[in-house]
Amino acid sequence: MHCTLYIVPTPIGNLEDITLRAIRVLREVDTVVCEDTRQTIKLLSHLKISKPLISFYTQNQLRRIPQIISMLEAGKNIALVSDCGTPAISDPGYYLIKEALEHNINIVPLPGACALITAIVASGLPTDSFVFLGFLKRKPGKMRKELDAAKQLEKAVIFYESPHRLLKTLEICREVFGDNANVVLARELTKKFEEFIRGSLQKVSDNLQNREILGEFVVLIEPCKLSVGDNDNDEQ
Ligand code: SAM
């Protein structure tokens, strides 16, 4: 008797940003699989829900996946959550979901909070089509290559970045997209200090030099208009 693996988004800051359905599923499942149990306990206590938790993160996923699959195969309903937002979006989850599908386990995804979507809709950049790179490669050469490949698509380029790497990453963005390309930094979305920092890459980087960089960021860069010759693969 296989049971269901529910993919349950949780807030990205503001605790009100959780759906009625997510709360009901969290109440009804047998177990919640999460990243940092301390983080999920905070949310569940806020919702007055008490459930057994299983921690699941990159370093223990190989060991955990067979355990979680066995529980599902034994008839347990499980909710997968992450520390924030939609599980499997730049979060552990993908490998569990893939393995569950290979075991013919029913997967039910719930829609909900996601930093990427929250950022793009308020960015003023085209929302019909964009490129999301998750967290960029760390090595500057690989990062440059990754950004350059995304630039060739002439769509808004979006990625997640940590505050302590932001300035260095913006420098590489300037090399790839040029000083005048417009960027939007969506900071601390849904939280008390939510802020959208907009302007050219040069202006935004210069302004950041003069302030402490704190909080969580989504970086969005406007679509690049390539001129003829910028892309050797262009059909003429
Ligand atoms: N699964 C999450 C989602 O659905 O957006 C993303 C998790 S990823 C590990 C965490 C990154 O998402 C952060 O480093 C930051 O770039 C972005 N992020 C999460 N919460 C955010 C917020 N409130 N404001 C801005 N960015 C946020």
Structure description:
The protein has 236 residues and is an alpha/beta fold. The chain is 35% helix and 20% strand. It is built from eight helices and ten strands. The chain has helices at residues 20-28, 37-46, 61-73, 94-102, 115-123, 140-151, 166-177, 201-209; strands at residues 4-7, 31-34, 53-55, 78-80, 106-109, 130-135, 156-161, 182-187, 195-200, 217-221. It is elongated. Mean pLDDT is 95; it is low at 232-236. The structure holds S-adenosylmethionine (SAM). S-adenosylmethionine (SAM) binds at residues 12-13, 82, 84-86, 89-91, 114-116, 160-162, 186, 188-191, 216-218.
How would you summarize this macromolecular structure in one to three sentences?
The protein is α/β, with parallel strands linked by helices and 236 residues long. 35% of the residues lie in helices and 20% in strands. The protein has helices spanning 20-28, 37-46, 61-73, 94-102, 115-123, 140-151, 166-177, 201-209, and strands at 4-7, 31-34, 53-55, 78-80, 106-109, 130-135, 156-161, 182-187, 195-200, 217-221.
